[in-house]
Each structure stands twice: as C-alpha cells, then as structure tokens.
Amino acid sequence: MPLYEHVFLARQDVSAQQVEQMVEQYKALIAEYEGSVGKVEAWGLRTLTYRVKKNRKAHYTLMNLDASPAAVAEMERQMRLNEDVLRFLTIKVDEHEDEPSAMMQKRDRDDRRGGRGGRGDRDRGDRGDRGDRGPRRNDD
Questions:
Q1: Of 81, 52, 59, residue with least CA distance to 10
Q2: Is the residue at 119 inside a domain?
Q3: When you count CB atoms within 10 A of the terminal residue's CB, does the N or C end of the chain come out lower?
Q4: Hey, is 14 helix, strand or coil?
Q5: Residue spans of alpha helices (H) in 1-140
Q6: Has residue 103 been placed in a domain?
Q7: What is the CATH number of the domain that holds 42?
C-alpha cells in the first residue's frame, strides 16, 4: 500500500483530548480499510499565519499512514464534514521517517535554548549610539 504523511489542523477551542479522540476515530477508519497508522505527532496549539475560519490558533497533528487511496479519500471526506477540522494536507511519500519530524526537532531545540530566539544575553544598551559616523545632515 502507498505511504502518506497527513497533517490536520483542529480548531483552537477544541481540547487536546478531543483532538486525540479525532485521531483515534481516523485510525479506526484507516484500519477498516486494512491500512495502518504509524507515528502520530501532536504538535500542539500553534499560532496560524493568518485567520482560518475566524481562528487565530489551531491544534496541529501529523499522522504517518500506510493505507489505500480509498481509505485516504474517505478520511479526507470525513474531515471535510467535521467542523472542528480547519485544514488538512495529505502527501504521498516514498518512505516514512523514523526520527521526529522537523517541527518536533524545532520544539526540542527551543526548549533547550530556554525560550524564543536565544538572544537573552545580548547587550541592548547602545542602540542609539551613532559611533564615529558624525552628526546627521539635514538636506532640505
């Protein structure tokens, strides 16, 4: 059977438990079509780049699928009908990666760094200093 990576976004006001229930529902659907779901990664509640159906945030979830095209089509059909699913994307891949996805690796790196950006130790005191450039000219 073909291999797929499937990512879906659930509304921000849905709880993490409800997202897990949706994942279990879609796993059961894939199993009905004699497919299987490999790795499932919950990327958590993340800010969207732009509003999607009046939502500023969404729960992101990645699923690695080993399923027939009919199973994927049925899952996508049910996602279209589900009001809690904002968007989804399914991509056919040659093989699944065993290691954590890039999103999970990024989260681990951010956790080790101690927050956003990693610029906490930068000196911010001399922002207004013009150095040896001399005074500004006022050309009218």
A1: 59
A2: no
A3: C
A4: coil
A5: 16-32, 69-81, 102-113
A6: yes
A7: 3.30.70.60
In a domain, residue 132? The reply is no
The answer to whether position 124 is within a domain reads: no
Domain count, the chain: 1
| Model pTM score | 0.71
User: What is the pLDDT tens value at each position of the chain, 140 positions in all?
Assistant: 889 999 999 999 999 999 999 999 999 999 999 999 998 999 989 999 999 999 999 999 999 999 999 999 999 999 999 999 999 999 999 887 777 777 777 766 666 666 555 555 555 555 555 566 666 777 65
Domain carrying residue 58:
3-113
Please choose, from the candidates 55, 120, 109, 111, the residue with its C-alpha nearest in 3D space to the C-alpha of residue 83: 55
